[in-house]
Amino acid sequence: MKYIGLKIKFWVRDIFFNKAEVLRNLSDIRRKMTRKKFRECVLKQSDKQLKKILKYAVEHTEYYSSLNVQKRNTTVPLSLALFPVMTKATLNADYDKHISDEYINKKVHKMFTSGSTGIPFCVQQNHGKRVRHIADLKYFGELAGYRDHDSMCYLRAKPTATEKEQSEQNIFQLDITSLSDENLSKYYKIMCEKRCTALMAYPSTLEQAVLFWSKHFKNETYIQTIISTSETLTQEIRDELYGFFGDKIHIVARYSNTEQGVLGQETEFDKYVLNWASYYFEILKMDKDEPAGYDELGRIVITDLYNKAFPLIRYDTGDVAKIKIADGLPYFTDLFGRRMDMIYNTQGKPVSPFLLCRVMRLAVDRNIDQWQFIQNNARDYCLKIASKEKPDLSKELELFSEVLGKDANIIVVYTDDIPILNSLKRKLIVSKYSISAGKKDNTQ
């Protein structure tokens, strides 16, 4: 009865607090994502929405209107191939020109990210895009086995919702800034007390948490679904999760980013269903802007079909994957994204690389082009900054010290550029320190 009462409470809230738009979008996503005839139905609908956003970008942004991707007085439809592939760096270079004239000086939702390539970036989202994002979260939650408004434990860096908002949403955000034994014990008890049926976190956080819980607790949780985000979820971590929570839980890896939203999700190991309802996907060759073949490793380039405030057209995510076909439907496999090493604090405890990324999100307005964080040994760290200026980073260094330890020696090095790897990506977090050997690891 208590569960039914909570459901009624949330349904009433959804209706009377302007949630009807979310429900309409959720219905649209379900309809498009469950169509069996992919080419006849899904691609046709995506292509229609794609033409709308391309036309909108040309008519309402200075950048795309100046490209002359469509000549005046022509009946030839806009083609995606006429639009350039964009990166965080190229978007930042002409940032104001990408903002829609309909949303200049208007209230928008801003999403900040340091990015997997170390380039601070902010994406403005209009109300329609924000609603679509919430609907995407609901749909892919359902796909993972998480029922809307069920209780969720979300282990994340610096919770953004108030306690009241968390209670209303039934999603409890727990701070991973310090994964001390005391906090991990506290989080386990909260997970049990709130009767959470879903757990969401970075794989590195899940690994550290489940290793501790396995030693100190018997599984008395209600967890049925685990959603892994951002980092690579290895088979070893999956096995550890199954070992503690039981082999009947549903574990999925979600492919998403801050600037766009939920892009895809595993339906089985290393097979990612793509969110064709909200995005248009391309896999381009590693060395040129041409389509990669099926089963060929290429760059993931995505067009957001619903963001009008800041159109993201042919956006190079910095990730790579292969695209394959099964039962007539395309999916991603061999998905590789952010390349980051594990960093340790001055006490020898591992620190999630995403905590460091969160600190650098604060630098989005500091004219920083790129950044890279390096651990040289137990207490010596280096923050490399590629910038035309030398911004004051005292606030960021203070926050780094809170994460790494007050005795951390962090130096800032200004440089013209940060070298890329053979994969054509910059390594954001680099560790030259081996905790097991207690010395620099020269093999990396």
| Largest beta sheet: strand ordering | 4-3-5-6-7-8-9-13-12-11-10
Number of strand segments: 21
Rg from Cα: 22 Å
Q: Report the sheet with the most strands, covering strand number, pairing sense and barrel closure.
A: 11 strands, mixed
Please bin the fraction of helical residues: 25-40%
Mean pLDDT: 83
In quaternary terms, these chains amount to single chain
Residue stretches low in confidence (pLDDT < 50, at least 5 long) are: 11-17, 437-444
Overview of the structural elements:
- This protein has helices at 2-16, 20-33, 38-60, 62-65, 88-93, 127-143, 163-169, 181-193, 203-216, 235-245, 353-361, 394-404; strands at residues 109-113, 121-125, 152-156, 171-175, 198-201, 225-229, 250-257, 261-268, 271-274, 279-284, 298-304, 315-326, 329-336, 343-344, 350-351, 368-375, 380-387, 409-415, 429-431, 433-434, 439-440.
- By secondary structure, it is of the alpha/beta class.
- Strand 17 (380-387), helix 12 (394-404) and strand 18 (409-415) form a beta-alpha-beta unit.
- It is globular, with a radius of gyration of 22 Å.
Give a topology summary:
Elements: H1 2-16, H2 20-33, H3 38-60, H4 62-65, H5 88-93, E1 109-113, E2 121-125, H6 127-143, E3 152-156, H7 163-169, E4 171-175, H8 181-193, E5 198-201, H9 203-216, E6 225-229, H10 235-245, E7 250-257, E8 261-268, E9 271-274, E10 279-284, E11 298-304, E12 315-326, E13 329-336, E14 343-344, E15 350-351, H11 353-361, E16 368-375, E17 380-387, H12 394-404, E18 409-415, E19 429-431, E20 433-434, E21 439-440
Parallel strand pairs: 3-4, 3-5, 5-6, 6-7, 16-19, 17-18
Antiparallel strand pairs: 1-2, 7-8, 8-9, 9-13, 10-11, 11-12, 12-13, 14-15, 16-17, 20-21
